[in-house]
């Protein structure tokens, strides 16, 4: 195949070239990525979806009858085998490579995703749109995302933030993650001095760390931080703490369009 023949929209994050499906009659999709399950539904592919994780919750009504196959990391391989999917959609961060390799033994097509920046959603929309013959719908989503992103403006005074995704141990996000790049649209720079090679580094509270932080953000997922957690932590560390919607700031796919409006309107002014 020459470079001229290659449709770049059909190349996934693993470098695999996929074919456009001319007929969806025999297409059976299992998706192990919550935000992409929502995207598939927004691309009118719910009829082709046969399996999802327990964390794939949007849209609630549409997914009620779709078989759950475990979590993003504790996947029930035999249950997926019985579903006989033609396509499996996974993500490099969210799904375990050994598990995906086992699934690849019997699933014909593995579609690998790995958005690291809000703009990567454009390629994600176009990848799934190209594979599943939904190019027009994908382009509509691209237009909506770009319009929403244009409404997000950087703060005049940049903020140094610490975005927390877990406790016991406390964990944050590295600079090259989707979340960090979302925050950067508002000129909120997530702390990048945690001295860890991991994308989701552990940390301990210290005076040195807190001296580098203007605001702490507690995310509602994957750990379910609450408003009470935010109030207690603020008393402990004597720094502003804001509870934020994890779906809006960490979910790529079509949720990112709503996420842009959420990020635009998110205010730090009311933190005492």
Topology, element by element:
Elements: E1 29-31, H1 34-42, E2 49-52, H2 60-63, E3 67-68, H3 77-83, E4 87-91, H4 97-103, E5 109-113, H5 120-131, H6 135-149, E6 159-164, E7 170-171, H7 178-184, E8 188-190, E9 202-203, H8 207-210, E10 215-219, H9 227-237, E11 241-244, H10 246-250, H11 255-265
Parallel strand pairs: 1-2, 1-4, 2-3, 4-5, 6-8, 6-10, 10-11
Antiparallel strand pairs: 7-9
Helix pairs in contact: 5-6, 6-11
What order do the strands of the largest sheet run in, or round the barrel if closed? 3-2-1-4-5
CATH topology of the largest domain: Rossmann fold
Instruction: Write down the secondary-structure element order.
Output: EHEHEHEHEHHEEHEEHEHEHH
- Average residue pLDDT: 95
Residue runs with pLDDT of under 50 for 5 or more positions = none
Helix content: 25-40%
Calculate the terminal CA-CA distance, rounded to whole Å.
Answer: 61 Å
